[in-house]
Amino acid sequence: MKNLQGLPQIPEVASKVINMVSDPDVSFKQVANEIAKNQAMTTSILKLCNSAYFSKGNVISSIDRAVVTLGLKEVKNIVLLVAAKPLLDKPVTGYDLGEGDLWKQGLAVATMSRDIAVAKKRKDVADIVFTGGIIHNIGKVVIALFVHQTYNQILEAVQTKKLPFHVAEKEIMGYNHQEVGEKILEKWNFPPVLRSIVRYYQDPDVAPEEHRFEVSIIHIANVVCLMAGVGIGSDGLFHEIKEIAMKKVGLTQYEMEDLFSKMPEILKQIRDIQ
User: Fold this and answer.
1) Is-contact 38 11, C-beta < 8 A?
2) Cα–Cα distance measured from residue 177 to residue 179, given in angstroms and rounded to the nearest whole number
3) Is the separation of the CB atoms in 262 and 112 below 8 Å?
4) Domains, the chain, ordered by start
5) Per-residue pLDDT tens digits for 3-36
6) Which tens digits make up the pLDDT trace of 38-75?
7) What are the residues whose beta carbons fall under 8 Å from the beta carbon of 137, sequence distance 6 or more?
8) d(CA 139, CA 179)
């Protein structure tokens, strides 16, 4: 964790745009100009803007047009997708995740999290939980090798002491992937709410109160996706939805069952941006 040079890098434009969109006084033009500075990313961003997942039916040929047509928050989501994919689309050995598994799970969690926020009439946080869903597992990319080396010890602690996988990680290695993920987001200068999501998505009961709603949404979406077999790796069988998260979000048992039923549709949606 001290070796910050070894942490994943993300294009500066991504962290700038995420923070700009958090500013209520920022203009469409300011955001478009910031994105346009990175020509390498612009082509990929426009391609996603015109994908079935994001497109509103009109062909988008410029970043200015994308911001006007889709809105600042949607374009911010697209910028993060383009920036994060190279980091999350690799095999994650220690967690027994193949190439693309972590990325696919992030997309599924992001999509479900956004849907939950909208269903609960919290459109104000829909883009935040989408972003958080994409990157909630970023710490696994860094510590995968260490988990691989200590996997048998971690699994033994899980089975003999009945510990959740991430708690056993902490006991055996001295840290877990959530703590490492928080360090990465600090380095990227991401807002506090996203750091809370990455740090506490498995422990929503101890998340800062001001971020607990968003963290709880990610927690629920993550477990539902794992239970549905999306992105399930060596730690995938050792998760359960916490009652406190369901109460915080206000989900009924019927609504939980409905989330599971929507998984095939979500997987169909995200195929377009994998």
Assistant:
1) yes
2) 6
3) yes
4) 1-85 (no CATH), 89-274 (1.10.3210.10)
5) 545 667 888 899 999 999 988 899 999 999 999 9
6) 888 899 999 999 998 998 788 999 999 999 899 999 99
7) 88, 102, 105, 106, 177, 181, 231
8) 7
